[in-house]
Amino acid sequence: MSLKRKDLLSLAPLSADEITLILETADSFKEVTGREIKKVPALRGKTVVNLFFEPSTRTRTSFELAAKRLSADVINFAPSSSSVVKGETLLDTARNIEAMQADIIVLRHSSAGAAETLAQGVKSSVINAGDGWHEHPTQALLDLYTIRQRGMNFKGLRVAIVGDVSHSRVARSNIFALVKLGAEVRLVGPPTMMPWGVEKLGPKVYHDMDKGLRDVNVIMMLRLQLERQGRALFPTIREYSRLYGLTAERVRLADAGVIVMHPGPINRGVEIAPDVADSLSSVILDQVANGVAVRMGVLYLMSGANS
Ligand code: CP
Hints:
Layout: H1 16-33, E1 47-52, H2 58-69, E2 73-77, H3 90-99, E3 104-109, H4 114-121, E4 125-131, H5 137-149, E5 158-162, H6 169-180, E6 184-188, E7 204-206, H7 209-213, E8 218-221, H8 226-229, H9 237-244, H10 248-251, E9 259-261, H11 274-277, H12 284-303
Parallel strand pairs: 1-2, 1-3, 3-4, 5-6, 5-8, 6-7, 8-9
Helix pairs in contact: 1-5, 1-12, 2-12, 5-6, 5-12
The protein binds phosphoric acid mono(formamide)ester (CP).
């Protein structure tokens, strides 16, 4: 089976089989990332362009590493030192990059829908590396990979996604994927941070964190995204932290084998206590490590190298 898609913009249209194919493809690349020489020739002759209009540590670096480990040529495009500052549009920028034979464009942008607009305007494959509040498909894929790596089966798995769900592209992609794979998804947070009607997608909403965490197998914390909120959705950070911060005491409400996840960057002492972030239950750095293998899998499948 292959991923017969030009672009990866969202997890909403992917089938459970397609998601599983990406995770299984990542398995073979995980082995490569553990070798002394972490390189295979799968994308030799292909060009991958990282087009990041928003700051990123994990996603940009791991896409670069993933492409290099597949032997692709990689261009890291920095908008601040490009003709974007002279007013060139996103589409014109991408068409110029495409004219230089880019096979895959990895886009991060602050506007929801930017990746879709770009995909409609260029022949190159487009991978959405996070667009506004919309989606962050490869983050959710690496989250799924990390859960599966712990030997957990998605069917019936109880997953609590906690925090500012409304402004979280990570939450949206995870909801689509986890529901599709048969998990029980709980969304935990204040009413002001919950998208209206989100229950129609399958999850159950909890405003009381202690109830939402009871017996869950996975706790997925979200960053309090003050830069995207525009206005205060909570009286004070201290109040938010008291009601929705993950402490060691709250972790004990979950299943004994619970894993704690966070897409990063973390606000220590706000949504997650430092001792929890650094605890044995935390798989936060495993998520980062798995990002490279998962993005290798995505780049490989999108490049058509397997067809
Ligand atoms: N998780 C995530 O998207 O992190 P970055 O913003 O550092 O890429």
